[in-house]
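User: For my dataset I need records formatted as: sequence, then structure tokens, nothing else. Please produce one.
Assistant:
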Amino acid sequence: MISLIYGAKGSGKTKEILRRANEALEVSKGNIVYVTDTPAYSSSIPAAIRYVNAAEYLPENGRISEEALLGFVKGIIASNSDVTEIFVDGIARMLGESADELEEFFVRLDALSDASGADFCVSLTCDKLPAALKKYI
């Protein structure tokens, strides 16, 4: 399952995804991972949640391909089969793509969720959500 948080820049998406990650900690029966490309919120994540700063693994331009990000997430799941929730903050920023370009990525992420049993919560900066992504909100 994918849960999507979207809105314009500065609309509180990161605050919301952090809130959801902290709530998941109270009810999760597995491990939780929070992936972003900035160290800015590392102190907002409790130690019980695995914080991954993807920027440490990104190329110098700070962008990663959809295939590489999916591989990165698959690696997280493969290294710990007890991962039940993965929070990805700033997907469009990491991929360097607009919301209109992400439909196929979300289809593939949804398939990964089904195959692994891990749920995803993703934040996306956009002013208008494409129709294809509305099923994830």
